[in-house]
Amino acid sequence: MPEQRQQSSFQPPVFGPGPVPGRGPGHRFSSKGAKPKDLRATLKRLWEYFKEFKLLLLGIFLTVTIGAILQIISPLLIQKAIDNYIIPRKLSGLYKIALAMIGIYILNSFFAYLQGYGMMVISQRAVFKMRNDLFSKIQRMPIKIFDTRAHGDLMSRLTNDIDVVTNTLNASLTSIFSSMITITGSIIVMFILSPILTVLTLTVVPLMFWLTNLIATRTRKLFSQNQKLLGSLNSIIEEDITGQKVIKVFTREAKEIQKFERVNRELTQVGIRAQIFSGIIPPLMNLLNNLAFIIVAASGGFLALKGFITVGTIASFIQYARQFTRPLNELANQFNQIQSAFAAAERVFEIMDEEEETSFEDEIDLQDIKGEVEFKNVWFSYTKGQPVIKNVSFKVKPGQMVALVGPTGSGKTTIVNLLSRFYDVDSGQILIDGIDIRKINRHNLRKKLGIVLQDTFLFSEPVKENIRYGKLSATDDEVILASKMANAHDFIKHLPHGYNTVLTDNGMDLSQGQRQLLAIARAILSDPAILILDEATSNIDTRTEKLVQSAMLKLMQGRTSFVIAHRLSTIRNADLILVIYNGEIIEQGTHDELLAKKGFYYNLYMSQFVVV
Ligand SMILES: Nc1ncnc2c1ncn2[C@@H]1O[C@H](COP(=O)(O)OP(=O)(O)OP(=O)(O)O)[C@@H](O)[C@H]1O
User: Fold this and answer.
1) Rounded CA gap, 423 and 415, in Å?
2) Is the shortest distance between the CB of 80 and ligand 1 below 6 Å?
3) Tell me: domain 396-417+443-609, CATH 3.40.50.300, correct?
4) 94, 81 in Cβ contact below 8 A?
5) 13 phi, psi to nearest 5 deg
6) Which of 64, 391, 477, 516 has fewest C-beta within 10 Å?
7) Which stretches does UniProt call biased (Polar residues) (predicted)?
8) Model pTM greater than 0.80?
9) Is any atom of ligand 1 closer than 6 Å to the C-beta of 410?
10) From the centroid of its chain, how far is CA 386?
11) Higher pLDDT, 431 or 248
């Protein structure tokens, strides 16, 4: 039966590094250059994070207002100094004005320091809360969200996006507010001093807006292209680090370098162009400022000669013209940044709005359970309309061992996913001791389950803490006892620091068999009533395989166990074999019963038997 052999689960290992984090739809690394979709709603939600600091914010804005008013007043003092004291040569009054101006400048610097300090405290606290909220939200999200969202994208929202929000708000909020007051105040005072000069000074403003807009449109495009390319570069780096083994085995290093170089070169070119364009703005603004200066000086001089205004008014006007164009430039610059910050905030809130694992008030907490498991006409689909589990029914008595057998992609993992309530059934029921698992509190249910996967996840923590993960209150002695039962004690003893050896990224410095032994020790410690085991297919030497197998047998004793089975010995010993094909149970029974049937299982067994 060549066809079935090919599909059989008794298969050689598939070489590969496992799922690549960061794959999938919506892979974005930064939100710069993006526009917010619903500004009002985002503002409202952002306010939730800042509102507890409203008194502090009020204080900050008060100092900003006072600072801006002082800024508006100071050119008037210059006018007064020239007209009332310098021209009539009254030195004593000049000193007073000089002192007042020094006072204003010192006070302004002090206010600027206070504002910076206050905003820093507020934004750091807000980011702390936002990060915590997002992280705990991620813990509450159902597995299906992680299936559909790229891991890199989720990580980027937790780090980059939150940083963009707070950094920008920290830097821009006070500056925008102060710019607005300064601009309005300056225009008002300018009008009072000389309407004609004001109108003349303002003639540069449309020119300024037009030119800035012209350049900003170009640079915005270039910057967003830049961010996109940076995203591509990041994803190449991420994939290449995760997929190093595949790259090395297929000796595709040169190809990868070439791919990287291409994107890197493009990024550099776009980066240079973006910087060149945006670099035009400051000198251009300087030019326009000077133009305003010339206009004020020339026409002011003319008006003064004609006796319409005083020399002091010209001097203060020049100051106002400066004072008024600078915040205008700042506002233009900050507009883009603020937009990115709101877009980043929206990306954060989008995750916060994701659905959560639901729980109900009348949920049951299971105490001691016997471990009877029943699937009743269970249907399930990951994608609507495409069922992967079709009308599955079976019953397992407490303490029995069930082997799930079937070709790859037939639905074995999905069945155990449903039992763990990583996903809920579309229709039908899963019962534990006669109770529908949807009525059982999810945490409580999962506490009764022990899961040992082929490739278990280990944290970058000491070995003993990784085992203790199964029961946080376990003593060191209990950890060692569990390790001994799991046949893991011997290899742990020989690690550089024994039980205190800190594992590297996902325990990559251990063999797959050793990782599995740790997972078994962890499960032994958690003492679950129902076990879910995924037998290793590969990468385990015969000696370790024997250790794993005997540890698994010990673990299974007295517990209802579901084994995604790859070994004939396990399958033969199973109390019940479920043969799954295309989401359906096509045969069930014991090894002998199924062999006698001479059906699918018989053929699967024979093809395996022939090869072995
Ligand atoms: N998260 C998911 N989203 C959408 N479809 C999925 C998801 N996980 C699995 N599937 C699909 O569901 C079907 C059953 O997959 P499942 O992982 O249960 O098979 P399996 O029998 O455990 O396979 P294997 O022996 O290769 O581990 C497959 O067609 C698979 O493509």
Assistant:
1) 10
2) no
3) yes
4) yes
5) -65, 145
6) 477
7) 1-11
8) no
9) yes
10) 30
11) 431
Nearest residue by C-alpha to atom 5 in ligand 1: 382
Question: Ramachandran region of residue 13, left (φ > 0), alpha (ψ -120 to 50) or beta?
Answer: beta
CATH topology of domain 46-352: ABC transporter transmembrane region fold (1.20.1560)
Ligand 1 neighbourhood includes 146 CB (under 6 angstroms): no
* 528 within 8 A of 559, measured Cβ to Cβ: yes
Which residue has the least CA distance to atom 28 on ligand 1?
Answer: 409
Calculate how far, in angstroms, residue 369's C-alpha sits from the geometric centre of ligand 1: 29
Give the helix/strand (H/E) hosting 531.
Answer: strand 530-534
Indicate which atom in ligand 1 lies nearest the CA of residue 144: 1
Residue 453 backbone dihedrals phi, psi, to 5 degrees: -95, 165
Task: Report the pLDDT value the prediction gives residue 152, as an integer from 0 to 100.
Answer: 66
What letters, b where the CB count within 10 A reaches 16 and e where it falls short, cover 427-438?
ebebebbebebe
Q: Residues 290-305: what's their mean pLDDT? A: 87
**Ligand 1 neighbourhood includes 147 CB (under 6 angstroms):** yes
ipTM greater than 0.90: yes
What is the rounded CA–CA span in Å between residue 563 and residue 412? 9
- The Cα–Cα gap between 437 and 375 comes to 10
Q: What is the pLDDT of residue 431?
A: 93
| pLDDT tens-digit series, residues 357-390 | 877 667 778 788 888 999 999 999 998 889 999 9
453 lines ligand 1 (CB under 6 A): no
Dihedral sign for Cα 144, 149, 153, 159, please.
negative
- Cβ neighbour number for residue 575 with a 10 Å cutoff: 15
- The C-alpha atoms of residue 190 and residue 292 are separated, in whole angstroms, by 14
User: What pLDDT score does 37 carry?
Assistant: 65
The encoded tokens of residue 320 equal 């106002």
Burial class of residue 93, CB neighbours in 10 A (0-12, 13-18, 19+): middle
Q: Tokens standing for 396? A: 């397992």
Tell me the C-alpha distance between 262 and 257, whole Å.
9
Amino acid identity, position 135: F
CA distance 175 to 179: 6
Confidence at residue 132, expressed as pLDDT on a 0 to 100 scale: 93
Residue 432 or 453, more confident: 432
Residue predicted with more confidence, 45 or 286: 45
Domain extent listing, the chain:
46-352, 396-417+443-609
Query: How many alpha carbons lie under 13 Å from residue 6 in its C-beta half-sphere?
Result: 3
Judged against a pLDDT cut of 70, whether residue 32 lies above it is answered with: no
- Cα–Cα distance, 448 to 532 (Å, whole number): 11
CA–CA separation, 405 and 402 (whole Å): 10
* Secondary structure of residue 476 in the 3-state scheme: helix
pLDDT of 11 > 70? The answer is: no
Which segment of 143-147, 410-414, 489-493, 538-542 scores lowest on mean pLDDT? Answer: 538-542
Sheet containing 435-436, strands listed edge to edge, beginning at the edge strand earlier in sequence: 389-396, 373-380, 427-432, 435-436
